From TrEMBL:
It comes from the Bacteria. GO terms for biological process: phosphorelay signal transduction system; regulation of DNA-templated transcription. It comes from Actinocrispum wychmicini. This is Two-component system response regulator DesR. GO terms for molecular function: DNA binding. The keyword Nucleotide-binding does not apply.
Length: 222
């Protein structure tokens, strides 16, 4: 089990003249067992080096800003859309770092969101090691690599039925905020917050707010 964020000494140095440049990879995976296995897999490749292996809550953007990896492999299947938010943050703040997202076919809404985030690599978490290595090498060259089953899943999800504001209100509700607290944070009236939550409940055919949160999460939109 990893003791915490690990960074290679080479990450702070410069490549030796005449040696081929390695593909520097930043790993962001919360599950220790999976992260350790990926570190071993990538470290065994002659053309790759793992410059850091982190969890989603390890101040990833700051580490990436310092190390400037060529590739960030991110497990987006995280509670509360943490993995997806990290993809957006890296895209906006570290555009030179290309993302390979690890995803599952379900929930399809999450896959669709990561595809619309202009991510070059989207790989099924249940794929083979060779497929992941192929994706990393392809994305490092600027190619788009998306597993077919994930693309099909994204298409099957249909368009996102919720507005950004509805999801913003629902996300705060899912975090435990009350109606008045949501209204205060978003500078909305209490009645407007109730209307947004009612719209979400109508769209999901949910009887309660808790049911609505569960349904939207299971669909991958939250």
């Amino acid at each position: 089990m990893s003791a915490g964020p690990q960074m290679s000494p080479e990450a702070y140095g410069k490549p030796v003249v005449g040696e081929p440049r390695l593909i520097s990879v930043l790993l962001v995976v919360d599950m220790d067992l999976l992260r350790d296995a990926l570190v071993t897999l990538l470290s065994d490749q002659q053309d790759m080096e793992v410059v850091a292996d982190l969890k989603c809550d390890d101040n990833v953007v700051a580490v990436a800003s310092r190390l400037r990896p060529a590739i960030a492999v991110i497990d987006i299947d995280q509670p509360g859309s943490r993995g997806l938010k990290l993809v957006y943050d890296l895209r906006d703040q570290m555009p030179a770092t290309r993302v390979v997202a690890l995803a599952a076919a379900k929930p399809p809404g999450l896959v669709q969101q990561v595809l619309t985030a202009e991510v070059l690599g989207v790989v099924d978490k249940h794929t083979s090691a060779e497929r992941l290595l192929h994706a990393i090498r392809g994305v490092a060259k600027g190619s788009q690599v998306v597993d077919v089953n994930l693309a099909v899943a994204a298409l099957s999800a249909g368009p996102n039925p919720f507005t950004p504001r509805e999801l913003q209100v629902l996300r705060l509700a899912a975090d435990g905020a009350s109606g008045p607290e949501i209204a205060s944070r978003l500078s909305l009236s209490k009645g407007t917050v109730r209307n947004y939550l009612s719209k979400v409940m109508n769209k999901t055919c949910a009887r309660t707010r808790i049911d609505a949160i569960r349904i939207v999460r299971e669909a991958g939109w939250l």
